[in-house]
Specification:
Blueprint lengths: L6 E5 L17 E3 L5 E5 L17 E6 L8 E6 L1 E2 L6 E13 L2 E5 L2 H8 L3 H12 L8 E6 L27 H17 L5 E6 L25 H18 L5 E5 L21 H17 L7 E8 L5 H7 L2 H4 L4 E5 L8 H11 L4 E6 L4 E2 L2 E2 L6 H15 L3 E8 L2 E2 L15 E4 L4 E4 L1 H10 L7 E7 L7 E5 L3 E5 L3 E6 L3
Parallel strand pairs: 8-9, 8-17, 9-10, 10-11, 11-12, 12-13, 13-14, 14-17, 18-19
Antiparallel strand pairs: 1-6, 1-7, 2-3, 3-20, 4-5, 4-24, 7-21, 15-16, 19-20, 21-22, 22-23, 23-24
Helix pairs in contact: 1-3, 2-3, 4-5, 5-6, 9-10
Bound molecules: 2-acetamido-2-deoxy-beta-D-glucopyranose (4 copies).
Length: 493
């Protein structure tokens, strides 16, 4: 490393000289005994950090979230270049350029929509502003399940009429038309930029499947290139076209949620099994050509949409095939069981083998383990888990990270198979309030500061044993994040 081309900056914000006044961000804190607090919001009040403005040259802004109760607490100071002092020293290597950021967000599941709409109109608006407006945390990605998943109140697809190969009876559900679509339109109206919408299907209609059911072990009948596989590709196109009628256009679709789940005996909720070979051939023969010939040919195709422990194996099978590979843009990963496989072996290896395909996080949530189930209001451990996983992903070429349900109720549902989990926003419809959890702020430290198009650059820190990240905005602004500490540095490069 040529030190002369690096920029050494010392920041005072981690030292005792900078005192932050707790509570000034206006969080109405409530403690439920899980390590930290939630911020309560209602129809007329919600704490907000406001829009972020870049500091003048030579200065930095910092934002701190702490277990003790700070929530995006703003601080500022002067950058000391080439300092040898005791403060945090960052060595920035601007010529070491890595991936460009795509964005951060969450999923508009049926459950999320039901919970948001269970609030009064004023509280709904506060909640959507928190996620999507520039005064909120500037989410730019929304994953939209195609038809039902476990976070629905019933099992359905858009084409449940047996033998409907032409999809003559394809219809969006009331869940789309009455709930998800109006909410997505409101979210889009609050966002200064077009949202990056991402579609994933959980199961094909039962009549298309080997097991004649939405749940359990089953895959598409026949073979890639055959009648059912063509109909299933067409189903995706119909979905994109129907949403486009509501002015909702999709940035990307995945080849299907967790294809490994549909290969497990008695899997308890909607799933569609694919081996990597079947996925490769379905993309090459059916989905790729159908999308290319459709009215939405620029929609990206992301493969896998499953846990990273399947990498790099899955990517090798699918992306080594030039017929499939030419239709594909990226590899989508879920965070479950991330501790089993090191990021470098799964994400790093995949990136180095196939650098022209981006890696993107499409699902994560807390409270999914049998030993640590459901909602834990105010959990600080879960906030650290989120931040740590996002940092690890960003340090291994991932371009964005998508949380699971945007909002859940206090039991962690609704979920028709009782697969209850946690969410950064938990709604109490009875009191017409919602709670912003510590994980909401973990998301904020990335979504609010690492804008689309900013680029990760090399950085090392003098005293930080956890991974950090710095991204370059335009030509000279850096926005970085350590676990729950944000720093925006303004310095010449
Ligand atoms: C910082 O130190 C490097 C290496 O010694 C030097 O090249 C650079 O000019 C210094 N920068 C400033 C602003 O003093
Ligand atoms: C909303 O919360 C604020 C702050 O706690 C409170 O002053 C206000 O009365 C609440 N509004 C309603 C409608 O409950
Ligand atoms: C459609 O959405 C775009 C933003 O994505 C907006 O600029 C445009 O005005 C919308 N058109 C209609 C007819 O709502
Ligand atoms: C799957 O479910 C069937 C019917 O309930 C049951 O007989 C069978 O033992 C289950 N198999 C496994 C592996 O759990």
């Amino acid at each position: 490393m040529a030190l002369s081309s690096c920029l050494l900056v010392a920041l005072g914000f981690l030292t005792a000289e900078v005192t932050l006044s707790a509570g000034s961000t206006g969080c109405v804190a409530r403690n439920f005994g899980h390590g930290s607090v939630v911020c309560e919001c209602n129809s007329t009040y919600c704490d907000s950090v406001g829009s972020v403005t870049l500091p003048p040259l030579g200065q930095y802004s910092s934002y701190l979230t702490s277990m003790a109760g700070s929530r995006l607490e703003a601080g500022q100071g002067r950058v000391q270049v080439n300092s040898t002092g005791a403060a945090l020293r960052l060595t920035i290597v601007p010529y070491q350029k890595y991936q460009k950021i795509r964005g951060f967000g969450g999923a508009m599941t049926d459950a999320a929509a039901i919970n948001i709409l269970s609030l009064s109109a004023g509280a709904q608006d506060q909640l959507l502003r928190q996620y999507f407006s520039p005064e909120g945390i500037s989410y730019s990605v929304v994953r939209v399940p195609m038809a039902s998943c476990d976070f629905s109140t019933r099992a359905y697809t858009y084409a449940d009429t047996p033998g409907d190969y032409n999809l003559d009876h394809f219809n969006l559900a009331p869940e789309d038309i009455k709930m998800k679509i109006p909410l997505l339109q409101r979210a889009q109206a609050l966002s200064p930029r077009p949202l990056s919408l991402l579609a994933s299907a959980w199961s094909a209609p039962a009549w298309m499947k080997t097991n004649d059911a939405l749940i359990g072990k089953g895959s598409l009948k026949g073979k890639p290139g055959g009648k059912v596989h063509k109909t299933w590709a067409h189903y995706y196109i119909r979905f994109l076209e129907e949403y486009a009628k509501y002015n909702l256009t999709f940035w990307a679709l995945t080849t299907g949620n967790e294809p490994s789940a549909g290969r497990m005996t008695n899997y308890s909720f909607q799933a569609l099994g694919f081996t990597p070979e079947e996925q490769r051939d379905w993309v090459a023969l059916d989905l790729g050509p159908a999308l290319h010939a459709s009215s939405r040919p620029h929609t990206h195709i992301l493969i896998l949409d499953d846990n990273r422990l399947l990498l790099p194996y899955w990517a090798k099978v699918v992306l080594s095939d030039i017929h499939a590979g030419r239709y594909i843009h990226g590899v989508a990963v879920h965070w479950y069981f991330d501790h089993i496989v090191p990021a470098e072996i799964s994400l790093g290896t995949t990136h180095h083998l196939y650098p022209e395909y981006y890696l993107f996080g499409t699902e994560a949530c807390s409270g999914f383990l049998p030993t640590d189930r459901g909602v834990k209001l105010g959990s600080w451990d879960r906030a650290e888990h989120y931040a740590h996983d996002i940092l690890e992903d960003l340090n291994h070429y991932v371009v964005g990270w998508t949380d699971w349900n945007l909002a859940l109720d206090q039991t962690g549902g609704p979920n028709w198979v009782k697969n209850f989990v946690d969410s950064p926003v938990v709604v109490d419809a009875h009191r017409d309030v919602f709670y912003k959890q510590p994980t909401f702020y973990s998301m904020a430290h990335f979504s609010k500061f690492l804008w689309e198009g900013s680029q990760r650059v090399g950085v090392s820190a003098s005293r930080e044993n956890r991974p950090g990240i710095l991204c370059l905005h335009q030509t000279r602004w850096f926005s970085g994040s350590h676990l729950t500490q944000q720093v925006i540095i303004s310095a010449p490069v």
